[in-house]
From TrEMBL:
The active site is at residues 82, 156. GO terms for cellular component: cytosol. GO terms for biological process: hydrogen peroxide catabolic process; response to oxidative stress. This is Catalase. Belongs to the catalase family. HPII subfamily. PROSITE patterns: CATALASE_1, CATALASE_2, CATALASE_3. SMART domains: Catalase. InterPro entries: Catalase, Catalase_AS, Catalase_clade2, Catalase_clade2_helical, Catalase_core, Catalase_haem_BS, Catalase_immune_responsive, Catalase_large_C. Its cofactor is heme. It comes from the Bacteria. It holds the Pfam family Catalase-rel.
Length: 713
């Protein structure tokens, strides 16, 4: 885990070069005087120029007109999809050069090169003002500022997509967006048009299974996988191609919220994921991701029971393992959201030597769509020169003029070939120093027809279902019931259930039972029984409490000695403890000292934390027991299967009918049962094993074995 923001200077085009490039355009206004955009100093900016104190405003007031005009034009069109985003700078570095036989892309093969990056995480369906914790796909787009030019890996947190051909993208987005007659609902897929589309387009079902799973509810961007989605092509020095799929795996593991938490967080803190990313980087808890690849020789293009060019399919990791390439660390927040996060422009066609496309029909359309989108959003063809988009390599071509041209080109030629400028800029070469399109023979009739190899719509949706653990399956069923329960037209509900019957009969029956439609009488086809353990989040990393947020509930008379010791121990494990009390400020401890409180309980919520601890102190516990916010805080954390702990008198707060676990009694040092950690000890007797056991429970993310059926909602 990274602990500092030190960057290495790897020579021309290294990580430091991008920082110097950005530093050159950053402006610190500390100690400056107010001016117009023309640099004219201004002595008054609070009142317009008028005829007398109450007379009409004059057009002579050039300063007011400039100020208002700029304000009127400050907003640009938001992205049609992925409008709500968060960004961060970082760097990527390969572990070694094992990929060199497959690609000439230096940033993937030279372990001495540290490539600067900018990553934008986003939701897909909602507007810029929507909440972070909606059920949705998340964008995971990475711009690599390589020494060979900019490369954009524009992916999502799910490895497949809803459609196979990009011509259907407008239809899908129109279906999932707020319905046009009333612009409702915002950032939600739980409405008629989306599910009508799904029922009519069975190719969506694999992605819909992912969307109904916990993958659509990430705990944080730091605990979220990323995928390139498409099959791309690596090209080596000899011009030989290899199919590749890209994977980002977070070092902290892949963890999710539960749906009840998501809905409550949207009200308590709609910026939950954005805030988490920002605060983690500011605190030096830098998010880290390992880039891995699945490689398929071109000779094996047709060796699978699905088409490699089909973006609704995965290559199961059990068939083709993901091999690690290198690691990305995000270590620097943007200085200005608009200038950087909002203006960053990604494009699937931004590639470098050693990486090329395939004939994936969804990818081919994206290669047109992204550029077209940037032209309207960012006001013209010069958006690549906005600092966040600017390459670290020199840009030398004959493209001129246009909106927002920031370069002053010298000379009299802007064409190729020429003799008046010595033939410059001249063509580069040879390969692999320049980009050269992968050569393959293409021939055929012009037709509009989907390949037969794309027409298996159900088997991988079944694979996903079979791969889920019991808790994950329960969440998927509950998600379908919630979503379809908001669909007004019964025939649409029925049609979706009929489609689910092609995925798994029991799934369809369980969903039908909750939404008031007829369950299928028989299965359409037997479940093939195959599974891929890598698809279940229960098989992710669960060995670290690093950066997990812990609420310690305190009140007057709390055991301050033990609380201070616990805080230190939790920090040693990498957790982030915060003290919450019935009021803000400070609380008086049992020994007459004071503990500074981080926040009042009624301004926070258990859904904003990964675990909760109730310390000793009879007076403190009595006050917490009489505080409805505190009692609900603990009850809700237990209900959501989170790590819950108490010691000394604090155990009494957990001694409730709904806490069907073993609690420490008398002199028991530490008792752990289903993610609940208790100890009868207090003050100087609190054993260090208490914090260790609690952090082990935090690392597991949830205690799914805990029964919470009787817990008050």
């Amino acid at each position: 885990m990274s602990t500092s923001s030190d960057r290495r200077d790897n020579g021309p085009g290294g990580a430091d070069d991008k920082q110097r490039q950005l530093d050159a355009v950053r402006v610190d206004l500390t100690g400056t005087e107010l001016t117009t955009n023309q640099g004219v100093k201004i002595d008054h900016t609070d009142d317009s120029l008028t005829v007398g104190e109450r007379g009409p405003t004059l057009l002579d007031d050039f300063h007011a007109r400039e100020k208002i005009t700029h304000f009127d034009h400050e907003r640009i069109p938001e992205r049609v999809v992925h409008a709500r985003g968060s960004g961060a700078y970082g760097y990527f570095q390969p572990y070694d050069d094992w990929l060199a036989p497959y690609t000439v892309a230096e940033f993937l093969t030279n372990p001495s090169v540290q490539t600067p990056t900018f990553v934008r995480f986003s939701t897909v369906a909602g507007s810029r003002g929507s909440a972070d914790t909606v059920r949705d796909v998340r964008g995971f787009a990475t711009k690599f500022y390589t020494r060979q030019g900019n490369y954009d890996l524009v992916g999502n947190n799910m490895p497949v997509f809803f459609i196979q051909d990009g011509i259907k993208f407008p239809d899908f987005v129109h279906a999932v967006k707020p319905e046009p007659h009333n612009e409702i609902p915002q950032a939600q897929s739980a409405h008629d048009t989306l599910w009508d589309f799904v029922a009519q387009q069975p190719e969506t079902l694999h992605m819909i299974m992912w969307l109904m799973s916990d993958r659509a509810l990430p705990r944080s961007f730091r605990m979220m996988q990323g995928f390139g989605v498409h099959t791309f092509r690596l090209v080596n020095a000899e011009g030989r191609g290899t199919f590749v799929k890209f994977h980002w795996k977070p070092i902290l593991g892949v963890h999710s919220l539960v749906w009840d938490e998501c809905q409550k967080i949207a009200g308590k803190d709609p910026d939950f994921n954005r805030r988490d990313l920002w605060e983690s980087i500011e605190a030096g808890n830098f998010p880290e991701y390992e880039l891995g690849v699945q490689l398929v020789p071109e000779s094996d293009e047709f060796a699978f029971d699905f088409d490699l060019l089909d973006a609704t399919k995965i290559i199961p990791e059990e068939q083709v393992p993901v091999r690690p390439v290198g690691r990305m660390t995000l270590n620097h927040n943007p200085d200005n959201f608009f200038a950087e996060t909002e203006q960053v422009a990604f494009h699937t066609a931004n590639i470098v030597p050693g990486i090329d496309f395939t004939n994936d029909p969804l990818l081919q359309t994206r290669n047109f769509s992204y550029l077209d989108t940037q032209l309207i959003r960012l006001g013209g063809p010069n958006f690549p020169f906005i600092p966040v988009n600017q390459a670290i390599t020199p840009v030398t071509n004959n493209q001129r003029d246009g909106y927002h041209q920031t370069m002053i080109h010298k000379g009299r030629t802007s064409y190729f070939k020429n003799t008046l400028s010595g033939g410059c800029p001249a063509l580069g070469g040879p390969w692999p120093d320049v980009f050269s399109h992968y050569q393959e023979k293409v021939e055929g009739h012009k037709i509009r027809k989907r390949s037969e190899s794309f027409k298996d719509f159900y088997s991988q949706a079944t694979l996903f279902w079979n791969s889920m653990s019991d808790p994950e399956k329960k969440h998927i069923v509950a998600a379908f019931r919630f979503e379809l329960g908001h669909v007004a037209h019964k025939h649409v509900r029925q049609a979706v259930v009929d489609q689910l019957n092609h995925v798994d009969h029991n799934l369809a029956v369980m969903v039908a039972g909750g939404i008031g439609v007829n369950p299928p009488e028989r299965e359409v086809q037997p479940n093939h029984g195959r599974s891929s353990p890598a698809l279940s989040q229960l098989n992710t990393a669960m060995d670290s409490a690093f950066s997990r947020k812990v609420a310690i509930l305190v009140a007057e008379g709390v055991d301050g000695v033990a609380v201070r010791a616990l805080v230190d121990q939790l920090k040693e494990h990498g957790a982030i403890p915060e003290l919450l009390a019935p009021h803000d400020g400070a609380v008086r401890t049992a020994d007459g000292d004071e503990l500074q409180v981080d926040a009042a309980i009624n301004t926070m919520a258990s859904v904003l934390y990964d675990g909760v601890v109730v310390p000793c102190g009879p007076q403190s516990v009595q006050m917490l027991a009489s505080d409805g916010y505190a009692v609900h805080f603990v009850t809700e954390a237990y209900k959501h299967h989170k790590a819950v702990a108490a010691f000394g008198a604090g155990v009494d707060l957990l001694d409730q009918p709904w806490a069907s676990v073993q609690l420490a009694r008398d002199d028991e040092p530490v008792v752990v049962d289903q993610g609940v950690v208790t100890s009868a000890k207090a003050r100087n007797d609190l054993p260090a094993e208490f914090a260790t056991a609690f952090c082990d429970a935090l690392a597991k993310h949830r205690a799914w074995e805990r029964s919470t059926d009787g817990v008050p909602a």
